Amino acid sequence: MTMTPAAETYDFKTPSGVEIERYYGPDTHPVSQAELGEPGRYPFTRGIHATMYRGRLWTMRQYAGFGTAQETNQRFRWLLEEGQTGLSTAFDLPTQTGLDADHPAAAGEVGRVGVHVGTIADMETLFAEIPLDKVSTSLTINATAPILLAFYLAIAKRRGAAFESLRGTLQNDVLKEFLARGTYIFPPGPSLRFAVDAIVYSLKNLPLFNPISISGYHIREAGSDAVQEIAFTLANAEAYLKEIERRGIPPERSGERVAFFFGCHNHFLEEIAKFRAARRVWAKMMREDWGVKNPRAQMLRFHVQTCGSTLTSQQPLNNVMRTALQAMAATLGGAQSLHTNAYDEALALPSETSAALALKTQQILAYETGVADTADPAGGSWAIESLTTQLERRIREKIGDIRAKGGMIDLIARGVPQGEIHEKAYEHSREVESGRRKIVGVNCLAIPEKKGRLKTLKVAASAESSLKKALAAFKAKRNKAAVRESLDAVSRAAAQPSGDLFVPVLAAVQARATLGEIVATLREHFGEHRSS
Amino acid sequence: MVEGTASPYRILIAKPGLDGHDRGAKVIVRALRDAGFEVIYTGIRQTPEMIARAAIQEDVDAVGLSLLSGAHMTLFPRVASLLKEEGLGDILVFGGGIIPDEDFPLLRKKGIDRVFGPGTSLQSIVDYLKEALARRKQATDGKSKARKIKEGAKAAK
Questions:
Q1: Crossing angle for the helix pair B48-57 and B72-85, nearest 10 degrees?
Q2: Would you call B44 and A109 a contact, using CB atoms and an 8 Å cutoff?
């Protein structure tokens, strides 16, 4: 029995539909030196730094969080002890949608997919004994991102950590919530205003902090292909830059602090090429289309997470291999930071065993394989260069099409990209169903496993009730008049059609207003977005 | 490929709770439609009450619940019990998402007829629905009339 795909039953196309040749060579696919450039030089095809990982390894940043702030603080400290070099906080859905632990709609969801942080006290506990001026921290949060940033800054202030020393990233990409992930609160207009308020405040006060991480990851996970992932993300970036520019900060400056986040899927060659193409597209967009001269603002800096949707619940240990290969593609693609998934994530949140192995996968890649020793080791491969050029062309065409149709904000409001992503998702499912796209252990070599259940993480059901109790105690101890006054100030700011919301929100969390109270105050003015 | 069928059954696919991941739910909607079912999709972030109301208004034969957030033990049984309270216990309730095997027996006890994990083939969901709904129809032919009468009485109020 042979598993080699026969030419007549298998079309050699990448998931984005790029035809793969039988072989690539200098005569059929010559490499353009001008397009390639050098590492650290425009158009940054070969990476954003001249020394790449020799100068600085990628940050090993595992997304983690569950239950109460105490539990997640323990997981954080354990990850740092295990050699992780940056933190990334996963928040639960009530935190993401602006509900306190005692809200009826939060029932069953508190502490489930991440940690619950509803008060300044929760944030204090989450980062207990973690030096904020030393550890770079990503707050993976969107619709409520400005409020979570306010909690973070408030505890930094109390601990005497200078704002100038804070490193990290606020995801704060609310546009992709409407596009792919669904965790929005207000309609798009006020959502964008709130996000950009936090960005503008950060650009003025937090010189080392990335106030937004514009995310293709969720677009890919919702079913898009690699071309759509990059095109929609870079088009979203244009929408943010325009709004930031309207507030008086030109892309020449804001471009330096805008970070990106992509997925890494299974097709090894296409994914390496995708990252290289994305860097080149962004550099050209910034220089040629926006007239940006600052090289730091032309560099596409990005975090990568291996794609969760590629993990299977069948034969779950196979996921270790998928993740390792995806991680290798991400590093060959020149990522600045990386999250590797745990093998049990198609079943539950990672256990301590699977989380440790996921981190060690990165460590083996960094210290044993040699991929970090030279910049862009895949560069110059006729196959990779040809794929990079073809993906670049398709991404640019797609962005041109988006601009011609009125830009992302308009298209998202009409549901156009959402529909395109869904088409791709359905196409993928049908290909898996028909066996045209092979997944080992699912529709190919699906040999039944010997029974023996994986031990998965259980989030204690007591997290919800203990958080409710803690919230009641927190509320009982605060100065009620000060809370009321601070919320009134937020309300007055929100009543204006424009003007900053971040400073009053920062004052409100310092007066010990809760996440739910601030969101409820804003909701009175902004209303709520409902899915159609 | 999903085999077609000329079934008149109506299915509500619903996303309870705060989870916005609906790639799977939307794929199921498409696959069931392609297989000949009439399918209504609620959209994301619905409360159990909203889902039960939609099931009644749309007069569906089955409700499929999709959830990836881990809140299924709270939200799935709540939908089933709301339907039962309305005298609509004959509506088939099934579910899917990131749900560990060990939760299946308790969910079944609480009225969730079947739970599908990640990687389930679309065809197996279609086959299950055809079979389970045909079985239900035979067993509860009289009861669905009672449901119509009850609804009629409500409308008259």
A1: 40
A2: no
The interface predicted TM-score (ipTM) is 0.89
Superfamily of domain A27-434: Methylmalonyl-CoA mutase (3.20.20.240)
In chain B the domains, ranked by start, together with CATH numbers, are 10-156 (3.40.50.280)
Interface list for chain A against chain B, based on CB atoms closer than 8 Å: 93-94, 96-97, 99, 105-109, 112-113, 177, 181-184, 221-223, 309, 312-314, 346-349, 422, 425-426, 429-430, 433-434, 439, 442-443, 453, 456, 459, 530-532
Kindly state whether B117 is in contact with chain A, defined as any CB-CB distance less than 8 angstroms: yes
Question: Following DSSP, what letter does each residue of A411-428 receive, concatenated?
Answer: HHHTTHHHHHHHHHHHHH
What angle in degrees, to the nearest 10, is found between the helix axes of A226-246 and A188-205? 70
Q: How far is B46 from chain A (nearest CA, A)?
A: 9
Supply the pTM of this predicted model: 0.93
Half-sphere exposure (Cβ direction) of A243: Cα atoms closer than 13 Å? 25
How far B80 CA lies from chain A's nearest CA (Å)?
Answer: 16
Report how far apart, in Å, the C-alpha atoms of A19 and of each of A12, A16, A333, A398 are: 6, 9, 20, 18
Q: Which one of B71, B100, B119 has the shortest CB-CB distance to A108?
A: B71
Q: Tens place of pLDDT for every residue, chain A, 532 residues?
A: 445 555 445 679 999 999 999 999 999 999 988 889 999 999 999 999 999 999 999 999 988 999 999 999 999 999 999 888 889 999 999 999 999 999 999 999 999 999 999 999 999 999 999 999 999 999 999 999 999 999 999 999 999 999 999 999 999 999 999 999 999 999 999 999 999 999 999 999 999 999 999 999 999 999 999 999 999 999 999 999 999 999 999 999 999 999 999 999 999 999 999 999 999 999 999 999 999 999 999 999 999 999 999 999 999 999 999 999 999 999 999 999 999 999 999 988 899 899 999 999 999 999 999 999 999 999 999 999 999 999 999 999 999 999 999 999 999 999 999 999 999 999 999 999 999 899 999 998 888 776 667 788 887 778 899 999 999 999 999 999 999 999 999 999 999 999 999 999 999 999 999 999 999 999 999 999 987 6
Which token pair is A287?
């220089």
Chain B residues near residue A181 by CB distance under 8 angstroms: 20-21
Å between B139 CA and nearest CA of chain A: 32
User: Nearest to residue A117, comparing CAs of A474, A356, A456?
Assistant: A474
CB spacing of B17 vs A108 below 8 angstroms: yes
Which residues in B lie closer than 8 A to residue A433 (C-beta atoms)? 1-2, 121-123
A223 closest CB neighbour out of B23, B74, B123: B23
DSSP, residue by residue, A465-499: HHHHHHHHHHHHHS-HHHHHHHHHHHHHHHHSSSS
